[in-house]
Structures are given as C-alpha cells and as structure tokens.
Amino acid sequence: MKKLAPIFFAGTGSNVGKSLISAGFCRIFKQDGYSPAPFKAQNMSLNSYATPEGLEIGRAQAVQAESAGIPCHTDMNPILLKPTGEKMSQVILNGKPVGNQNAYQYFKTDGREQLRTAVYQAFDRLSEQYSPIVMEGAGSISELNLRKTDLVNMPMAMYANANVILVADIDRGGVFASVYGSVALLNEEERKHIKGIIINKFRGDIRLFEEGKKILEDLCKVPVLGIVPHFTDIYIEDEDSVALEGKFKSMQRDKINVAVVLLKHISNFTDFQRLEQDERVNLFYTNTIDEVLSADIILLPGSKNTLSDLYELRKNGLAKAIMQAHREGKTVMGICGGYQMLGQSVNDPEGVEGGIKTLPGLGLLPMETTLSAEKLTRQVQFQFLDENGTCEGYEIHMGITNYVGNTERKAVNRLSDGTFDGCQMGENCWGTYIHGILDNPVVIDYLLRPFKKEGMTQTMNYQEFKEIQYDKLAEHIRKHTDIEAIYELLNN
Questions:
Q1: Which residues are catalytic, by number?
Q2: 359 in the same domain as 440
Q3: Which residue segment(s) compose the domain that 408 sits in?
C-alpha cells in the first residue's frame, strides 16, 4: 500500500482527549490495512510500561501500540518524564533513566539539541517501518514561553512534515477562544501545518453546533473534520490521574467492595482497570479512613515516591486503618511501592527519593526494602502461588526487598527464570512487584474468593474485552469524523 504522511493530533490544552483520539486512529488505520504506529516525542506521566526489550515508555503509547496491533517500543516515546515531587521529575531517555531534573533544568536551552536529536532519530527509525505514524502532542501547542525548547509539539510536527489536527475539548467551555487562540498564536510557518480541527467530548445534539462549526472554519481558515461526542460506554486505559476523579464511588452491598488507596504520587493505576470491569466488584479510589475500614479488599498501588506517600499514610491515619482492616480479616494487597510499604521498613540511604532516609512500614509482611538508583524494567511470565497456568505482567521498580526474621512466609510468584517474587502472610495479606498481575483471571479469582457471594460469576477474557473496546472507539470516531478528508490529507 502507498505510504501515508504522518498525522499529528495536537491539543488546545492538556486532557482534551488527544491520547484517545490517537488510539482510535491507530485502530482505524489498522482496520483499513495500513501499518500504523504511535509516536509521542515527550510524555509526562506516572503510568508507564515495560517494552518487550525491558525498557520503559509511557503507558499511553503502549495502549496505542496495542490498538495498532504491534509491540510497543521506546521509539514510540523516546522521552518520558516521571514526576517524583512538586518540581522534580525522573527523565527516561530511550527507555532508560538518565537522572532527575527540576523543570528549570529540563527546559533550559543548554543541552537541548541532544534531546532534540534523540527524538528526531526515534521518529526516523519508526517511520522507516510503519505507515502512517500517528503522532501526539503534549498540552497546548501555543505555549509561547516554551517555544524555543519545545520538543513535542509544532517543531516535531514540522520536522515530520505531518498534517496537524487540532483537538479541542468543548466540554470544558471556551472552545472558540481555545481553538482560535491556539491557531492565532502560531507563527506563519507553523500555521501552514494545521490542516483541520476536531471538537471532542461534545454533549447534546450535534446539529446545534453547525453554526459553531462554520464560525470556527471562517476564523481559523481550516476545516472542522469532526465533532466527536462524549462517551461513557467505551473503556480504554487512562493515561492521567485526572481520570481518577470519576472513580470515587460509594459502597455497594451486592458487590465485593475493593478500595484502592489514593496516594499523592500514585503510579500505574492501570493495574486495577481489569478488576474495575469485573461484574463482581465495586472498585473505588479513596483516602478516607471510614471507606478503607468498610471495604472488603484494600489495594495499595504503586508510587513514584514511596517514602513520601508512606509518610502521608502515617500522618493522616490511613496506615492505622489499613492495619486495623487487616486484623478484622479484610484482604490487604500491595503492588510495587504499595508492596514495599507493607513491609517492616523502607530505607533510602542514598537519597534516591529525597530527604527521608527511612520509615517503618505497615509491618504486615516480614520484609524490608532498600531503595537504589538502579531500576529494574522487564516483562515477565510467572506462576501465581499454587494456581495452575502461566501468568504475564511487567516490573518497573527501584529497590531491593529482602525477607527479615524467622516468620513463616511464602513467595507469591515463581518467575519463568526460576526466581521468586513477592511475599504472602496468611490468606489475607500479600504483595508483589509485578504490575499487570490483576489482568490474570487466576489472580483475580484468588483475590475475590474469600468474599465471593452466591451466584457471582465472571467469564471475561480481558484481552478480548480490550480488542472490542478499541474497535468500538474506532467505530465511534469513524462515525463522527470525515475519514475521507483525512485520508486525502495523508495521501498528498
């Protein structure tokens, strides 16, 4: 098939839906017989994923690659910034950490060309293998103060000679100002690359926006290529913790109530999205003591700053609530940083995470963790406890965890290389370093077994479920965008 030009989904701001639109077009191009691949030069997220090579990228690009039907690779997201505090971020370059920097250090002009060269080379390698490249911007395309150092928006689009589609979120209001302002603030050369507009998250009767569409086209001198309605019945893994705002729910008597402890530096909350779709479960995020005590199962998620979040748990009383819930027979499970918190102590002698050198853990598991600068990133296969079947997941963590004392305990997972992971004490407390462990039905069934109510069944195949969601997303976008016009752009 003819090689198509790249398409670039830019935004009027953050959280306007660029990632989902990109994922949808990855699936559309795949359905139409092309070989698409996603690309985002620079991503900032605490949701990350391990590639088959054992390197780290943003979770959104891994989701988009899955939608495109291809393995994820670091070339799809050569720079990943993982916030470690209010002003600091860990910088991941081509899948490997290269240090921590504050925003001022990162966005200064010195050394910027080295990063620019890296993202251009990643794009070039990707474009040799795939067509079209479905590119995604970050935040707003019109951040004038960052124009000289921008790696991810218009300079990247211009380097790739991509067709830029501006995505705006009408649900937040001010769509005319945000679209027109975004275009007007670009320079003349940049504006040449803006080929269309997509209005996203529309509510109500689209026919009522016909006049608005014409106004935007007259103002911006580019066509509105789609008005995409808001949806609530398509489930794609979320990139940003902003998505958690809609996941605060009340208890349900006819369900197994599962509380995910809402940490300030929560990472990889996609670990729980499979469980969230289970018909037996009412899953919610919380940082209140009463809700933790009322839940059947308490899940401690990963954290980008384990010691800081552990300090907050102790300060706000949630640590005591979790320990009390455990004593009352509730199940407590931790993943990655949450697993570390369940031990006797977490130590940071080298100051990897900051100023806190050591804190006692919740004391529910007989192990202790020492943080280190070296990060382990890999995909894994494993056997879970004594259950039958091979499970899959991935590891992304910094630190070494060792058993302490003579208390009887049990490893949770036996990995395919013969090593062991995790720790279990009794039936109702265990932890693991493996992200994605709850995507495996045998693990979920084990977790829910003590609280299963009569008549509860679950037959979901999560991989099939995700494939259906990608197809539904593609169908939704096809229905509400001018696909023919978009193909015409990519064929020129």
A1: 336, 435
A2: yes
A3: 255-452
